[in-house]
Design goal:
497 residues; 5-stranded antiparallel beta sheet; alpha+beta; 4-stranded antiparallel beta sheet; 17 helices
């Protein structure tokens, strides 16, 4: 019977509690959030962050940097064709991907440090989801009106006014999303060239696919999902508490001062009478402006992004009713408790936790900087032939084949001298090259390129140390004397010793 009842029920519900069949929802239906417009200090900070971050995102690909005639002149560029990442004077090759790892580690530690100091300041001001959502809500508010107007519009029947307002909103969202996708591909292609190619239909399929994907994802996440991304998709809220302590600066509600809540008659305020209730008049202004729709008076919550808009809203109400500001404030839990007991408060940014994060960040940054400014501009890689391992020549000598790759990381033509050390060779040959008088070879490599050369090395069997003899290839910059070596082995026949 229980099985039949379960099969006949709505797939979104389940039967529970034994004999009594009670339908339980499997997921919570979304309560759409309609953030209200607010003005104030924190709102101005968010506008500044939005404008600055968008300006950086859209303008950086257009900056130029002279690297010479053979290299791209875009200041910040990830060149997938050449396999290079350029960041002003820094050039990262594919085998130097560990620098990218270091950057990610620094970003993570930096986020931990910022959170331990100022809570979710990244989420409230710097996260791309926050920036795009802010911009989308600005457009929505401009076309559809403020909170009450948007609520009425959503609840009204479909009319010509509703169609054009919602249609215009979504068209604007799509346009913003498309510009987002277009700006992203500028970091992987020469900006002026790819813009012309996109509008003339000459861009590659990868460019159009990338723009289409980012257009749709931005439109979906910033236009439709919004606070759902912060609440359900982002992992950061779920472990942010591990970075916080009682002295971290977060958005807090002064419950000792605000409770108990209740409305206040204006005539009592005019007479200067002290109300029996607390300073919170339960106007829900802090809730109405929250982009995630939470009530900060319930304490710090996973959904809170620390933007501080509730502080601006509450201060505006406090000014109107004649109460002191900062009932909702940007402060630490410890200071809230101290203020409740009439004790002096303090802000302590230098704490064991922040010292530890700062130390780790400085160590990682120092290691990366040391490696970056002391890395070699020359690299040598050698690949030995494995089929066959060796060839016996007509005179009895043994010959091995190798593919040598010389990486010239400088923006100039280079000539390198190839030599062999640690092996008494009877012959050294580079296909297509003429040997020098001492038996070495000159290898010419173009600027910022990899030179590939086919090399054969011969030796007598009696000079070999068994079936695998260790030796080195060495390349030396003819101009500067800078050299690199590569340890490899010479394969030969097994000998009884």
């Amino acid at each position: 019977m229980a099985m039949s009842n379960l099969q006949q029920s709505d797939p979104k519900t389940i039967a529970a509690n034994g004999d009594e069949d009670r339908e339980q929802p499997l997921y919570k239906t979304r309560d759409k959030v309609y953030p209200k417009r607010v003005s104030g200090y924190f709102r101005n900070l968010k506008w500044f962050a939005l404008i600055a971050l968008l300006a950086i995102y859209w303008l950086v690909p257009w900056l130029r940097w002279d690297r010479g005639a053979t290299a791209p002149d875009q200041a910040v560029l990830i060149d997938m064709d050449l396999g290079r990442a350029y960041f002003f004077f820094i050039e990262i090759w594919p085998q130097e991907v560990y620098y990218i790892t270091g950057i990610l580690i620094m970003a993570a530690i930096g986020l931990f440090l910022a959170t331990s100091l100022f809570g979710r300041i990244w989420c409230g001001y710097g996260c791309p989801q926050t920036v795009w959502t802010d911009l989308f809500m600005l457009v929505e508010r401009y076309i559809q009106g403020d909170r009450n107007a948007r609520v009425r519009l959503d609840q009204s029947k479909w009319t010509l006014e509703k169609i054009w307002k919602i249609g215009a909103t979504h068209l604007a969202w799509v346009a913003i999303s498309m510009i987002t996708g277009g700006a992203f591909v500028l970091y992987f292609n020469d900006a002026p060239t790819v813009v012309v190619d996109v509008f003339t239909g000459n861009a590659s399929l990868a460019v159009y696919v990338t723009i289409a994907f980012l257009t749709s994802s931005t439109y979906l996440l910033a236009g439709w999902a919004r606070e759902q991304v912060c609440t359900y998709m982002c992992p950061w809220p779920r472990f942010q508490s591990a970075m916080l302590d009682d002295e971290s600066l977060i958005v807090t509600y002064e419950g000792w001062r605000g409770e108990t809540r209740g409305p206040i008659k204006r005539k009592n305020l005019a007479r200067g009478e002290v109300p029996e209730t607390g300073h919170c008049i339960d106007c829900h202004a802090c809730v109405n402006v929250c982009p995630t729709g939470i009530d900060i008076r319930d304490g710090l919550q996973m959904e809170c992004i620390g933007c501080g808009l509730c502080i601006d809203a509450c201060n505006d109400i406090m000014d109107k009713v004649g109460f002191p500001r900062d009932l909702v404030r940007f402060d630490s839990v410890q200071n809230t408790q101290l203020r409740a007991t009439g004790k002096a408060t303090r802000v302590r940014l230098i704490r064991p936790r922040t010292i530890f994060y700062t130390f780790i960040l400085m160590v990682v940054a120092s290691v990366m900087m040391f490696g970056l400014f002391n890395r070699s501009v020359l690299e040598l890689n050698v690949l030995r032939d494995r089929n066959p391992l060796f060839v016996t020549l007509s005179d009895g000598d043994v010959r091995n084949g190798y593919t040598i790759k010389v990486l010239n990381k400088e923006q100039a033509n280079k000539t390198y001298i190839l030599s062999v050390t640690g092996l008494p060779t009877t012959g050294l040959q580079v296909i297509g090259q003429t040997p020098n008088q001492d038996g070495s070879f000159n290898l010419d490599v173009a600027p910022d390129r990899v030179g590939s050369f086919r090399v054969f090395v011969a030796a007598t069997p009696t000079a070999l140390d068994g079936d695998a003899t260790s030796f080195e290839f060495k390349v030396t910059d003819l101009e500067t004397g800078n050299s690199e070596t590569y340890d490899t082995v010479f394969a030969g026949p097994k000998t009884d010793r």
